[in-house]
Amino acid sequence: MQPIDHPKSLMEVTAEQIRCAIVSGELPLGSKLSEQRLADALGVSRSPVRDALAALQSEGLVRISPKRGTFVFTPDLRVVDELCEHRTILETAALHLGIERNHAKLLRDLENSGAAMERALAAKDAHGYTMGDHQFHNAIILGAENRSLAKSYNLTISPLKALRTHLFTIMSENTDRSMKEHLAVINAVRAKDVELAVSQLADHIGHLAEAFRTKLRSEKSSNVKRAM
Amino acid sequence: MQPIDHPKSLMEVTAEQIRCAIVSGELPLGSKLSEQRLADALGVSRSPVRDALAALQSEGLVRISPKRGTFVFTPDLRVVDELCEHRTILETAALHLGIERNHAKLLRDLENSGAAMERALAAKDAHGYTMGDHQFHNAIILGAENRSLAKSYNLTISPLKALRTHLFTIMSENTDRSMKEHLAVINAVRAKDVELAVSQLADHIGHLAEAFRTKLRSEKSSNVKRAM
DNA sequence: AAGTGACATGTAACATGGCAGTTTGACACC
DNA sequence: GGTGTCAAACTGCCATGTTACATGTCACTT
């Protein structure tokens, strides 16, 4: 016996569709959306689309300009820096808590996702590597066993996920170093060395932030097309 | 001549009204709301009310149960613990950053709000003390100069603000110790002693969490009345 | 050619109506 | 007294209509 989970409302699936389209790059960054067009494309009315866009705005994935339109977010250098700093704070704190209060499960989950990433790396599977990476960091957050923290994390991380697929299309990021850093974190966790694990993790996210910065600086194009 | 700032949308003022009513205690915790009644009471249609409630749900102030009704949140012991832990993580990280990159302004703001709290304390002004307290912690968050962090903080802190007014009606909390702890943080910040400031702040929030716990344990009543 | 303003178009905000799921309570029945 | 039934009331979800505002277009003036 378990509480039955309600079937997802139309608004929720609509939000998932649009979120997925943004993260996957189907809807380009900065492109203009329209409630009506999205509703027509998804075969629903404007109401759920409107609700979904409002939810996505709170995730930072879209920006609703009153009476003007809704736009996919555009990566601003400062905003990305702030997001990465925020992410570092949440993840390092979660890692600290997880090692102390949830060591066995945390280590197991990290090792599993680490293995998945190594397999993907050997198979040159960029998408698989990204999935493993998300799984890895998600395990860190879940290890803290704090739903408020997890909710906040998921709400702030979406734009970074979208940026990742937009900037690193075909394994162009330094996956070798990334893999080594993940393994270093796992080793530190295995040794229950909180300080080392936290500093390794902070460095890892810092490197990602640096990669974002260099990529963003080289992309001055601000092309605002219509997508929907 | 100056650029005219757009008047707030109906949804925004509606959300502010309802949020204020919850935080101030006008709408009791756990009470059942209704889009229709709220709309009638506020003199607007159901649309802005609905949007506002959705926004308040993402703040954790209300819980929308599909087809059943919307309820003001109820303080769950574990949820409150998690909120306080989350809050500690955000504030200590912000304080750390603020001392390093924004010391002068941070110290000034903290001293100002500290003085306001002392005045309120001398005048037995409970409301004034609470306002000063909010100002104090807000200054810490703003000191980090990270909008993502600040947004996340404001989104998670609302239930705690509501709890404070619900649990500590008439100066029943230990304001003397609270005041001393605030001053201790200020002194540590003045001395640029990051470690000390952070640990003092963590202790302070921990004490608040403890006060919440004891209060909540003594309130077993789960009276769900209708308010709107 | 450059500037102006009327106008058409597109947008989201807001209002309202219909609908399906949930709760409630009266009431017949055991 | 306890139990099952069912209908009415209530709820939020979704669809659609209406309105105010933003903006692009283009004839017209200078």
Q: Strand order across the biggest sheet of chain A?
A: 1-3-2
Mind describing the biggest β-sheet of chain A? 3 strands, antiparallel
> Could you say how many structural domains of chain A there are in total?
2
Oligomeric assembly: homodimer
Radius of gyration of chain A: 19 Å
**Considering the protein shown, what is the CATH homologous superfamily of the largest domain in chain A?**
GntR ligand-binding domain-like
Share of β-strand residues of chain A: under 5%
Structural class of chain A: mainly alpha
Domain HTH gntR-type (chains A, B): 8-75
Organism (chains A, B): Rhodalgimonas zhirmunskyi
Keywords (chains A, B): DNA-binding, Transcription, Transcription regulation
GO molecular function (chains A, B): DNA binding; DNA-binding transcription factor activity
Key words describing this protein structure:
three-stranded antiparallel β-sheet; 3 strands; Arc Repressor Mutant, subunit A; mainly alpha; Four Helix Bundle (Hemerythrin (Met), subunit A); 228 residues; DNA-binding; globular; homodimer
Overview of the molecule:
2 copies of one chain form a homodimer. With 228 residues, chain A is mainly alpha-helical. The first copy, chain A, has 2 domains: 10-72, Winged helix-like DNA-binding domain superfamily/Winged helix DNA-binding domain (Arc Repressor Mutant, subunit A), CATH 1.10.10; 77-218, GntR ligand-binding domain-like (Four Helix Bundle (Hemerythrin (Met), subunit A), Up-down Bundle). Chain A contains 9 helices and 3 strands, in the order H-E-H-H-E-E-H-H-H-H-H-H. Chain A has helices spanning 10-24, 35-42, 46-58, 77-101, 103-122, 126-143, 147-167, 175-190, 194-218; strands at 32-33, 62-65, 69-72. Chain A has a 3-stranded antiparallel β-sheet. In chain A, a hairpin with a 3-residue loop joins strand 2 and strand 3 (69-72). Chain A starts with 9 loop residues before the first helix and ends in a 10-residue tail after the last helix. The mean pLDDT of chain A is 89. Chain A binds a DNA duplex (30 and 30 nucleotides) through helix 3.
